[in-house]
Amino acid sequence: MKPVAVFRHAPQVSPGHFTEYLDELAIPWELVAVDEGASIPASPLAFGGLCFMGGPMSVNDPLPWIKPELALIRQAVAAGVPVIGHCLGGQLMSKALGGEVRRNPCKEIGWSEVFATPTPAARHWLGGATRFPVYQWHGETFSLPPGAERIMTNDACANQAFVLGPHLAMQGHVEMTEAMIHDWNRDWSSEFAQAERLPASVQPPASQYAQLEQKLGAMRQVTRQLYANWVSGLVLR
Question: pLDDT tens-digit profile of 39-53?
Fold first, then answer.
């Protein structure tokens, strides 16, 4: 079975539940530690699928690995190798496929309620879920590339997820674990320095931790439905 390549762009932004899910299904995966200087593969054909994680940088930054990743995404889509993107990863997919990435009207940090679009594609990918919590940490957002279909939205950020055939791009972080949430709030605590000026879409850590187990559980149900659909398209050989 071909492995899934998992691209990590920052040490704090681990694949979290995504690789836990692959391990449950005995699907092999390989970490491409871009944050440690790993080179970007020249071709997607050695992999059953490609997964791109998040990071604090922008896809519009002049970083040496961004153009190779964009090219790899385009090759994968052309070859029918499924691609999945989380936050920055979703933005990379949008830009690679002809969309744009720009500043969102507001930052989203913490838990937000997300809604499924009333479409057959959303029902397929989300298993009938219509509203659910998703963990967020972003200041930019993507547009829909040509041919893509929005399946998730909310008031703070219109394009929460899109699909294009077997490919799934998400703005939120459905891969989160409880440990990751605590780590991010510790490592990026500067986001909450001026608490009195935070918009409603930015939750301070104490608010994020309220009912944390229940919110993670509700998101996990949707996460596993999304991952199950994506995994079903993997190129096995």
Answer: 999 999 999 999 999
Does the pLDDT value for residue 143 go beyond 90?
yes
Give this prediction's pTM.
0.96
Q: Which of 153, 29, 137 is nearest to 86 (CA)?
A: 137
Question: What is the domain range of residue 43?
Answer: 4-231
Number of structural domains in the chain: 1
CA distance 51 to 4: 7
Confidence check: pLDDT of 23 > 90: yes
- Could you tell me if residue 236 is inside a domain? no
Distance CA 8, CA 98 (A): 23
CATH, residue 27:
3.40.50.880
69: pLDDT strictly greater than 90: yes
- In a domain, residue 184? The reply is yes
Residue at 237 is within a domain: no
Q: Say how far apart CA 82 and CA 214 lie, in whole Å.
A: 31
